[in-house]
Amino acid sequence: MSSQHTIGTLREQQLHASLKQWLAQPGDAFEQKVDGYHIDILRGNLLIEIQTANFSMIRKKLTKLLENHSVLLVHPIPETKWIVRTTKRKKQLTRRRSPKRGRIEHIFDELLYIPEIAKHPNFQLQVLLTQQEEIWRDDGRGSWRRRHWSVTDSRLLEVVGEAEFSGVNDYLALIPKSLSAPFTHRQLAEALGAHIRLSMRMSYCLRKMGLLEVAGKEGRSLLLAPGISADTISAA
Fold first, then answer.
1. Are strands 212-218 and 150-165 parallel, antiparallel or unpaired?
2. Mean pLDDT of all residues in the chain?
3. What are 136-189's pLDDT values in tens digits?
4. Range of the domain at 30
5. Contacts of 228 (CB under 8 A, 6+ apart)
6. Residues of 150-180 as b/e, b for ≥16 C-beta within 10 angstroms?
7. Same domain, 83 and 160
8. Band of the pLDDT at 227, cuts 50, 70, 90?
9. Does the predicted TM-score (pTM) go above 0.85?
10. CB within 8 A of 152, min separation 6: which ones?
11. Given 50, 103, 196, 214, which residue has the most CB atoms within 10 angstroms?
12. What CATH number does the domain containing 51 carry?
């Protein structure tokens, strides 16, 4: 049901519905239609969209809405995640903590699908670090990587941290201050204390946003330095 006073949760995953409740403020309107699109939360002139995964799915929608509206995109990253295995009849079998640990910089795993949108003046991003449960069901229909267990839902347990990005300077702030330019992907990964895959995705997004550029090579490795846009912003 769509209403200015109740939060519609029909056909939503538990995680999405719980985040909507966590974000809700007095006066918010829910499930409103704007420019042909359903919006999770309408707060005055601000459109708030919750996207739990796969930013490529929301690219077209954001592109259209940003032409005339301010949009806040909210994305959860599980700092801690528990895997809950259930039977076909939803009876819990086991619960274990995943060894994977999420961090704010993992937002670049999704931003690589919308790097140009991320620098739009009407675009804002809120990243929530969460504790979550991921529900696996033994139905034989899932990925072979999970031995055919299906991921059927996700549950929000707690929001434990957050970061807001309202301009490109906020993205630049994720580059460790201890790192002097030019630097390689490996040096960025070491400064972050992260896998090089994450540093490469971070670099890709920041280059697409004009905040980093290739400044040469060190052997086979690219050297990265602040781009023209980054210099202009820093000098402003």
1. unpaired
2. 90
3. 998 877 778 877 788 889 999 999 999 999 998 999 999 999 999 999 999 999
4. 1-166
5. 210, 213
6. bebbbbbeebeeebebeebeebbebbeeeee
7. yes
8. confident
9. yes
10. 86, 135, 136, 137
11. 50
12. 3.10.640
Within the chain, residue ranges assigned H as helices are: 14-23, 59-65, 108-111, 115-118, 168-172, 185-192, 196-208, 228-235
Pairing state between β 123-137 and 150-165? antiparallel
Specify whether the CB–CB gap between 49 and 58 falls below 8 A: yes
Task: Out of 142, 166, 190, pick the residue that ends a domain.
Answer: 166
Contacts 24+ apart (CB under 8 A), 147-150: 149/85
For residue 64 the two structure tokens come to 């259209």
Alpha helices by DSSP H, 98-167: 108-111, 115-118
Work out whether strand 123-137 and strand 70-86 pair parallel, antiparallel, or are unpaired.
parallel
The string of pLDDT tens digits covering residues 67-78 is 999 999 999 999
